[in-house]
Amino acid sequence: MLAVDGAHILGVDHNKHPVTAQCRFGHRARPRAHGFWVPDREGHVIGPFTGREWDVDGASSAHDFQTAMIGSATMYLDRAEIKDTEVSSSYGVDSARPASDFSVPSGHWTATRSRARPTEDRMSRSSAPRRLLASWNSRLVPRPNMSSRTKSRVDQISNHLASSKPSFLELNTPFSTERIAHLEDEQGNRIVRTVKPKPKEAGGIKVRRVSVDCDKVYDSPKSPRREAKSGNNKPFKTPIKTTPFSLPKTMSSQAAHPALLIPGPIEFHDDVLNSMSHYSESHVGAPFVNTFSQVLQNLRKLFQTTDPASQPFVISGSGTLGWDQVAANLVEPGDEVLVLHTGYFADSFADCFETYGVKATQLKAPIGDRPQLDEVEKALKEKDYKMITVTHVDTSTGVLSEIKALSELVHRVSPDTLVVVDGVCSVGSEEIRFDDWKLDVVLTASQKGIGCPAGLSIMMVSGCAIERFKARKTRPTSYFGSWKNWLPSKHLPLAPPEDRKANSSPVMQNYEAKKPSYFATPSPQLIHALDTALKQILSRPIDDYFAAHKAASQKVKKAVADLGLKQLAEKPENQATGMTAIYLPDGMTPPDVLPNLLKKGVIFAGGLHKEIASKYIRFGHMGVSVTDPKRPDITKAIDSLKEALEEAGYKKA
Fold first, then answer.
1. What one-character DSSP code corresponds to residue 232?
2. What is the spatial distance between Cα 189 and Cα 202, in angstroms, rounded to a whole number?
3. Does residue 402 contact residue 603 with C-beta atoms inside 8 Å?
4. What is the CA radius of gyration of the chain?
5. Residue 70 pairs with which residues in a beta bridge?
6. Are strands 216-219 and 393-394 parallel, antiparallel or unpaired?
């Protein structure tokens, strides 16, 4: 049987003698898991107790009952009222109170190995002072024995307490925390106690000293920063600083990690990642529908389109799904498409077309360059192409294509040819004016310039492209990617009346109009993250956002030139804003440089172009790493690159 107060806990040993012990604030790594562990007279461990919530093996009980753990058995107790607050000092309690007789209320509980059960009023004859627990509406909730791992943890704590070691807070257990315990005094007022462990070092890691007070999270003064470790268990030369966002100004919710500066995925803002911890909700419920509607409307702003005939798409998948949608819906087997080649991803897009029976002709440029407009004009005049595709920024080479001039050329020479832009590595870091440039499709993904975790395929489709879809002579050969499942029934090609009725839900239009719809379940958590990322982008004038990327890009490219290195894209007009592909010095390969960068807390990407993959590396500079002036990512990466090259034996000529 247990009796508790704000600072003491009472147990009864096997001889029915009362046992009291002072509350010991224990360790646990969860903000809401506050409490202490105490031993009973037989050396069993009781706890952790909070006065409101028991938390055992990582699972919190509901608010209307509490959980106690004794030895290898657990039990549940209803929320209790404490009666007759009197405690004895005879068993180590540091605050003695006058002794008095007492009686046990009916319906109290004792712990057995497998269940909680009511006991008789057999202890009322005892005259020992104690404090009793009155329980009502108690639940008989059995709980299986603890796992072996949990039992070993409990035994460790029990042995430590039994040995009377005073430094309990330094015990390295899964329950260790730097959190506070919340208890209540006799009047029901909350008592806040704060445990501040001493900073210590272990294995090269400096432990942050943190004090937590309910809704406040802050760094203690002069608290050391955590150092990240490399693969050989040694600290990085430069400690990785926490990001300047999140709840406090100097603390990040993200674990310390090397700066990810590849051409995607990129570093993410704390607020974006925190959005993914949104509680589970219905994908057709009003709250989520409203969020999805806001996302689709903000995508129109990002792509700079106000044409009501255009349609944004957000579907679970990667950027590659955008290729499938284009090939499955806008061209048919036997059609001709012209693919402008600036790197690896043009090859892949062409291969996707071939998979759907479409004939893809590639117009290739030398590595680091792009097809010239006169070459494109010549190709368009030689053959009737249903579509022309261009990779705005090829992630493999860092080559930037001129979209505006290309679209003007296509509409002048071959007005029936659709203009499709692969913007996976450009949307968010390069300006795109969907309406002004008369584009038909721009496809992208969430994990690059937009700054959202991977998992969403994003497209903007013009009204002209939708009309082309409606006019197709054959049914789409994809199911998930077929627009017949995402657009209203009036857009379905060659669909009989019964099929039109069965697929009459305009999913994307409905979501944008704040109406629930369904074909395939979206990812609510990713949609929330995308919503946050788009709001961050649009929180300033869009031109200022692109200007920040341009300034960071110029800084990187100047640093590359100062190091005596060359870019794959030598001509300034061919150089992307959000990434830089850098040739390594002669005789040097990515394995000579990338590991040294990693030791310094920076991650670059190796080469991807199949012809020159061993000769260059790729530096991504987009998203929060360049738009937040407080972040040192770009400066640190430039300095680390210089040091890594020197360590690899490079000396500027």
1. T
2. 39
3. no
4. 32
5. 46, 73
6. unpaired
Q: Which two tokens stand for residue 137?
A: 């509406």
Tell me how far CA of residue 507 lies from CA of 176, 287, 469, 480, 597, in angstroms.
Answer: 49, 16, 16, 13, 46
The end-to-end CA distance of the chain, in Å, is 81
Structure tokens at 425: 């590595």
Query: Does residue 199 sit in helix, strand or coil?
Result: coil
534 Cβ contact list (under 8 Å, min separation 6): 295, 298, 299, 302, 450
Reduced to 3 DSSP states, what percent helix, strand and coil does the chain have, rounded to the nearest 5? 30, 20, 50
Q: What is the DSSP letter of 36?
A: E
Kindly list the distances between the CA atom of residue 144 and the CA atoms of 13, 43, 73, 76, in Å, as whole numbers in the listed order: 22, 21, 8, 12
For residue 202, give both structure tokens: 């272990």
Report pLDDT digits (tens) over 532-542: 999 999 999 99
Q: How far apart are CA 174 and CA 10, in angstroms?
A: 25
3-state secondary structure of 382: helix
Q: How many CA atoms lie within 13 A of 496 on its CB side?
A: 2
What is the maximum alpha-carbon separation in the chain?
107
The contacts of residue 148 (CB under 8 Å, 6+ apart) are none
Instruction: Name the 3-class secondary structure at 49.
Output: strand
**Percent of the chain scoring above 90 in pLDDT:** 55
264 token code pair: 């995607």
**Domains (range + CATH), the chain:** 3-177 (no CATH), 305-496 (3.40.640.10)
d(CA 20, CA 1): 12
Tokens found for residue 371 = 């097809």
3-state secondary structure of 75: strand
- Owner of token pair 């004038």: 541
**Beta strands 393-394 and 116-118, pairing class:** unpaired
Q: Which residues pair with 458 in a beta bridge?
A: 314, 444
In the predicted structure, residue 97 carries a pLDDT above the cut 70 = no
Q: Residue 528: which of 207, 187, 293, 325 has the closest Cα?
A: 293
**What pTM does this model have?**
0.63
Name the β-bridge partners of 364. Answer: 341
pLDDT, tens only, 44-80: 444 444 433 333 333 333 232 233 333 322 332 332 3
> For the purposes of burial, counting CB atoms within 10 Å of the CB of 580, is it exposed (0-12), middle (13-18) or buried (19 or more)?
buried
Question: Which residues neighbour 231 within 8 Å (Cβ) at sequence distance 6 or greater?
Answer: 598
Q: Is the peptide bond before 48 cis (omega within 30 degrees of 0)?
A: yes
Token code pair at residue 295: 């996302």
Phi–psi pair at 138, nearest 5 degrees? -65, 150
